[in-house]
Amino acid sequence: MKAILVTGGLGFIGSNFIRLLLEQTNCEKVINLDKQTYAGNPENLEDFESNSRYVFCKGDICDAKLVSFTLSKYQPDALVNFAAESHVDRSIDGPEPFVQTNVVGTLRLLESFKAYHNSVSDDRRSDLRFLHVSTDEVYGSLSADDPAFSESTSYSPNSPYSASKAGADHLVRAYHHTFGLPVLTTNCSNNYGPYQFPEKLIPLIILNACDGKKLPIYGDGANIRDWLHVEDHCSAIWEVLNRGRVGENYCIGGNSEKTNLEVVDTICAVLDQLKPHGSPHQKLKTFVKDRPGHDRRYAIDGSKIKSELGWTPEYSFDTGIRKTIQWYLDNSHWCENVTSGKYQRERLGTA
Questions:
Q1: From 34, 60, 77, 136, active-site residue
Q2: Which listed residue (34, 60, 77, 137) is catalytic?
Q3: What's the pLDDT tens digit per position in 34-61?
Q4: Active-site residue 161, yes or no?
Q5: Would you call 336 a catalytic residue per the annotation?
Q6: What is the mean pLDDT of residues 51-77?
Q7: CA-to-CA dists, residue 3 to 32, 50, 62, 159, 176, angstroms
């Protein structure tokens, strides 16, 4: 692929995917369309700002004219959609931005891509791809004995966030079956790794522990998630984009089911080795009131992507979490700018 348009490329997963494209592929042009919300941090990709293969376009995926202009100008071979509001707690406090970005925004992307798809030559049209990045949360919650989510699992979203992502997934599917768009959808488990905004569990625990602050754990800490290192996720997306069957969904997991309490305890144990606090970091653990509608367990069955594309995750949780913790320790400047909000003030010109 000569050119790829990435939406939401300043966010956690999107910026890691752009890094993969620029560092590990021969892609000639990577266009990053990002609204620069609180989760879109220019520092995530500042080392590529002078790279001739990288183009940044500030804009909202809900702006159909801008999306259409960008597609027309750069003529990408693929559009990979990471742009989304993604924090469950924020969706509980205010659902409307999630519906606007995740549902309406995806609709506008599909409409613009449809027009672009219809405008190119027949030979070129067959090679175009629209890849929509989604979540395992659309499938709802599992009990301890339930089989893991797969591509055939019925949708059963339980939060405004997961409902908005489910709506987007359905639109993507509909545009394939109704209009023949060459779409692909991936549903991933919980990501972790470098450049993750510290409202999410793992970076929050790492940074709080380093500062000697309380480590908040919802409920009894027994909620289970399958943890996927972001570099594994990005490599899987690249495989699906290049070799996945058009119109199909692919579930991407890390084969690392852990309770939240196990995750926190692991982080504390590693930090006890890498950055001792004077007393065990586990003493900072604090159980707090559970959030509404907190799904009990997520798990991914990755049989399809393994059998069709030969993809499996490279990172074990122990290896991935240690590497992640070390990254946060080594990048204190990035952490300080994020937690202080300095990057946002600079974006708004109020620094």
A1: 136
A2: 137
A3: 999 888 999 999 999 999 999 999 999 9
A4: yes
A5: no
A6: 98
A7: 11, 17, 22, 35, 22
